[in-house]
Each structure stands twice: as C-alpha cells, then as structure tokens.
Amino acid sequence: MKWDTLDEEPCSLSRTVAVVGDRWTLLILRECFLRVRRFEAFQSSLQITRHLLSERLKKLVRFGILRRVPYSESPKRYEYILTQKGLDLYPIIMAMVHWGDTHMGDERGRPLLHEHKTCGKLFDPVMVCSECGEPLHAKQVHVHAGPGRREAVG
Amino acid sequence: MKWDTLDEEPCSLSRTVAVVGDRWTLLILRECFLRVRRFEAFQSSLQITRHLLSERLKKLVRFGILRRVPYSESPKRYEYILTQKGLDLYPIIMAMVHWGDTHMGDERGRPLLHEHKTCGKLFDPVMVCSECGEPLHAKQVHVHAGPGRREAVG
DNA sequence: TTTGACAGTTCTATTTTAGAACTATAGCCT
DNA sequence: AGGCTATAGTTCTAAAATAGAACTGTCAAA
User: Fold this and answer.
1) Mean pLDDT (10-residue bins), chain A, 154 residues
2) Which of A4, A26, A29, B19 has its CA 20 to 30 A from that of A63?
3) Which residues of A touch B128 (CB under 8 A)?
4) Residue B136 and residue B119: Cα distance in Å, rounded?
C-alpha cells in the first residue's frame, strides 16, 4: 500500500484514514477535545515519545486539523488548537467513545459521562439520516457509485 | 505505551482504538460493510499482504467483531461476517466517510453516495443528542467523570 | 496427473516506533 | 554573573511492525 498517497484515493474512508487512522493520532485528538493544547501536556498525559508527538502534531497541522498558535513571544512558544476542520472530527471521536462504552465496558461503569449543554441532559450520540431523521443502521443503507469513483473501491 | 493492554484503559476511546485504531483494520472494515467476506477478496481489493490480512482478521475475530463461518466443507473454507458488535461500528465508519466527503474531496465529487432504504433518499449521516435530538457539536458538550474513571484520562 | 482456486504460513528486508539523551531559549533566584 | 527550571523540540540506537515474495496444504476439474 502506498500510504503516502492514501489521501488521494477515490474513497472518502481512505482519505480520512490517511489523516487520523492511527493510534497516536486518535489519542492526540482525544486530548485536543479535552482542551489539551501544549506539547508538554500532550506528552505527559499520553506518555507518547517526544519524537512521535512532534511528528504527529506536524502532520495534523499540515492537514489543517490543528493550528500552531503562539501564546508567548520570547521565548517563542506555541500551542495547538483545533480548526473547524478538526472540530468536525468530533462525530468520529464520539462514535468511537460510544462504541467503547457499549462494547468494551467493564463492571466499573463508564469512564466519562457527556452532558449536552443545550438540553442539560446526559446523552449518547446517535447517528441519524439527514433526510428523514431516523437512526441509521448498516443494513438499511444502499451504496451507489458517485461521480468521484474511479475503480472498485469504496 | 503498552498497546497490549490498551483495551483495558479507563477510557472508552482507548478501548476502541485498541481494536480498530489502525489503517488496515479500518480499511478491512470498509470492505466488510461493502459485503466482502472472503480472504482472497479482501486481499485483492486492498492489496494488503496476506500475512497482515491473516493477522488482522484473527484479531477482529478475537474481539468478536467478525465471525469465521464455514461456507464449504471439503475443502474447509471460511468467510468472515460482521457480528452485531461489528455492525455497531457503522457509525464510526460512516462518520469517517462523511468527514472525508466534507474535508478531503476533490473536483471529481464523491466516490460513493448513500441511499437510506427506509426513506428512499440520498443522505448524509448526522450525529444528534439521544435526549433532545438536536445535532451535536463539540463546544456544546460538557464532560463529567463517570464511575469507571481512574485517573486523569478520558 | 496436472492445473488452478482458496486460505493461509514462513521468510528476509525495510520502515516505523520506543526510549533515552541532548539542544535551545529565556525567566528567575542567589 | 552563574546556575536552576520550564517549554518545545531534535537526534540517536534498539526493538517492533510491515512489505513483498515465496511456499504449503486441500480439494475439484480437465
């Protein structure tokens, strides 16, 4: 597999996987959504090697998911903040958290609970159809080739 | 990082990442949702090495995401079918496809279109709150420690 | 009896990751 | 002035994972 051009495959899943499809990147994004922004903070909460952290942050900046913003002149220091493109990854992260809650739980219960400020309740995320609003299930979906399809890939 | 015990971390995202948090596994799951079931079919559509395919399929079976079902006695041959636990990964896959459609598209348009059989329309997936039904955004969510939380992880 | 399909396993070379040490800038303390 | 600390990285070597190709075993069909 040519991982270096995976983001140009005629498949939206491949393109997403090219950007966020590895363990460390997903864990870094979790920290971002928990409002972690600084190199040392990522490093100490994840126990990731500094080398890989540096490399992954660069990649996320390169793909426009994080912005590297100075928070101190002299000495120049930067923090990493989610862009809108990065914030839009929220459904992916939440879908993964929800699946983990549902299928990988233990007797101690959930690690985190999520409150929807808008309605004030603890919630779970639900994926619905943009057209009819009903919850979506794999078996109710039919896939068609779209205009950007080249070959026999999804 | 102790990747071998990531599925026991007190964090639902980590536990999910432990199971589906790598490139090949996500691409294999895409094929599963496109109704690919057999070793040779996965191998030829993904161009994954047979070694890794074998290893990943075993892992997905071990975690209860695929079932290895015989479709021929003599010679014994098996195919790999999504369990309910595997089908429940659909929101993760669809959220990734949707993000790719939105943020990684090119001038050729979408590779695939999705039709909701229930309502008959082409749709996008939307993540909503289970309690009030409104679309969810990261900034409207407040996180609380749940009973299964041990330390300062999500 | 030979060929081909299918579902793997085994082997070596290359790439990626882990782990630790090192660099650079600047503020603060004595 | 000299040394300590904080932050944000870079560099180095060893270990682990992946790529790529060849090989194995079972059976059916020609």
Assistant:
1) 89 97 98 98 97 98 98 93 98 98 96 98 98 98 93 42
2) B19
3) 125-128
4) 23
